[in-house]
Design a protein that fits this description.
15 helices, four-stranded parallel beta sheet, globular
């Protein structure tokens, strides 16, 4: 049987994909499976590595053969400490040897790994620790004070003493997990809940995520794969780390705050062939001005998190020599739409999310639950277990079956009876050479119900002339009904921990009467 990893075309994916062919890529089966074994042990002897770089960390190269030994030692270390299968091990570490061996070693031992974002403050950390109730917390030494005062929780700084302690244990460990045993708790970056809630993943999730690895990032065995997103979040963890490792790729990882110029250095130095990043990362690389100083080996590009603006998509293709492909999904439903990077028989259409992943049924439904015809905006839904699961994202299809994103359900602005996508207005604003970032929300208006308010981060001083210039630019591109009537200039936009623009914070601040000092009301008669 032909392996799925040997196929690259979209048509082949639709014809050849099956659950049986997917499971054939792994050593484990539906009864006995372990994520650490699939990511490490079965790839011994292939010369694979994880290379870690960042602005504030020393570059580190980790051979996967050595990491497999480290994971076994960590599993034995946990067992010696009395940590039982099913107990949680919280890990608040930046990418590096300690992070990877504890993440994978915990799962090898049958414990439940809980990766936590290193930028969590004391309250955010406490909320998640209360929720998952871990047996121990591994933490960056400089962050240990954030976990102070938690009686009964063993807090272990991942310092030289910790590494030496783990190194004293045997590297051999006989894992015994089942495919349906719990492997990981992963906290989402959304802000719609009052309290954090973990998405719970079994060991079988590594098989499921291989679909996204194959068709949404395009990674294949032996390649050098890069993802700058933090492995505390879904994109960096599953699509940027575990999926590529399971398929037998080497990793180029990033630790700490993102720096676009330095990251471009890393892409060239590490010989990265396949890159999956957030739309924000591509935008920052574009505006850094540093892309032209290197030659790159990149052949496949993907983005996620939010729609990419046209200027950044054009930059990526011009700089790296290939179109940047969308991968779309949510933490709860996984990746459901993609542009199939590396496939030469599917068009990468500007603004499109792509087409459904193999084996999935995806549609756009109206408020009654009926399928929307091409061009009509509704909610994107996916068929799971004989029912339609909503994504809470609005979208539409075209006549050829490509899907398009029209914003979150609460990112649609209704003004004077017109339904306007915040995403479309933002994209038009980002086409201005002096605009670095843009976010739009609807604000109350007595005449129109809502009008568009745009928040702008710019490389140019704020004044009314600049605001009018932006308004007219959008009006020319989109029409006389979907342009911002209020423009606020700000130093930065609020982001979720995963790097997405957080419009809910902008809406909340607006409801409280808070706004930037540089606000220009551009209503007709006031300009």
């Amino acid at each position: 049987m032909t392996k799925l990893t040997d196929l690259t075309r979209h048509g082949e994916a639709l014809e050849q994909f099956s659950r049986e062919s997917l499971w054939a890529l792994f050593d484990g089966d539906r009864e006995r499976l372990n994520i650490a074994h699939e990511c490490l042990d079965r790839h011994r002897g292939k010369g694979l590595t994880i290379r870690v770089a960042g602005m504030s960390v020393a570059d580190e190269s980790i051979a996967l053969d050595d990491l497999a030994d480290d994971a076994g030692r960590f599993a034995n270390w946990l067992t010696a400490r009395g940590v039982a299968p099913g107990e949680r091990v919280a890990i608040m570490l930046e990418p590096g040897r300690a992070f990877y061996m504890s993440l994978l070693g915990a799962m090898k031992a049958g414990a439940v790994a809980v990766p936590l974002f290193t930028l969590f403050g004391a309250d955010a950390l406490a909320a998640r620790l209360d929720d998952c109730d871990p047996r121990l917390l591994l933490i960056e030494p400089a962050l240990a004070e954030r976990a102070a005062g938690r009686g009964g929780l063993c807090v272990i700084p991942a310092d030289a003493t910790f590494l030496a302690d783990v190194a004293g244990h045997d590297a051999g460990f006989a894992w015994s997990t089942g495919a349906r045993d719990m492997a990981m708790f992963q906290y989402t970056s959304g802000t719609t809940r009052a309290l954090p809630e973990a998405v719970r993943h079994t060991h079988q999730a590594v098989v499921t995520v291989a679909v996204a690895a194959l068709y949404a990032t395009g990674v294949r065995p032996g390649e050098v794969f890069a993802c700058p997103s933090s492995p505390a979040w879904g994109h960096g963890l599953w699509h940027g780390t575990l999926g590529p490792l399971a398929l037998g790729a080497s990793l180029s990882a990033w630790a700490g705050p993102f720096d676009a110029a330095r990251y471009l250095d890393v892409l060239a130095a590490h010989g990265v062939e396949t890159l999956s990043a957030a739309a924000t990362h591509y935008r920052m690389m574009r505006t850094s001005g540093a892309a032209g100083r290197h030659r790159y080996k990149l052949r496949k590009l993907s983005f996620t998190g939010e729609p990419i603006d046209g200027a950044s998509a054009a930059f990526a293709e011009a700089t790296f020599g290939t179109a940047v492909c969308s991968m779309y999904g949510t933490t709860e439903v996984g990746v459901i739409l993609a542009n199939y990077p590396g496939a030469d028989d599917i068009e990468v259409r500007p603004g499109a999310l792509g087409k459904p992943m193999p084996g999935l049924q995806v549609e756009v439904h109206d408020a009654k639950g009926d399928v929307c015809p091409p061009g009509e905006i509704g909610e994107i839904v996916v068929r799971r277990r004989n029912s339609w699961i909503p994504t809470k994202d609005r979208g539409h299809t075209d006549a050829d079956g490509y899907f398009y994103h029209d914003g979150r359900a609460d990112d649609v602005i209704i003004s004077a009876g017109w339904t306007i996508s915040a995403i479309e207005v933002e994209d038009a604003l980002l086409k201005h050479a002096d605009v670095r970032e843009a976010a739009c929300i609807g604000v109350a208006d007595p005449g129109r119900g809502q009008v568009i308010k745009a928040f702008i981060v710019a490389a140019r001083a704020a004044d009314r002339a600049f605001a009018l210039e932006l308004r007219e630019g959008v009006r020319e591109r989109l029409g006389r009904f979907q342009f911002p009537r209020i423009i606020a200039f700000t130093e930065a936009l609020p982001k979720t921990e995963a790097g997405k623009v957080n419009r809910s914070i902008l809406r909340a601040a607006e409801a409280d009467g808070g706004h930037s000092a540089d606000v220009f009301n551009l209503e007709d008669g006031h300009a």
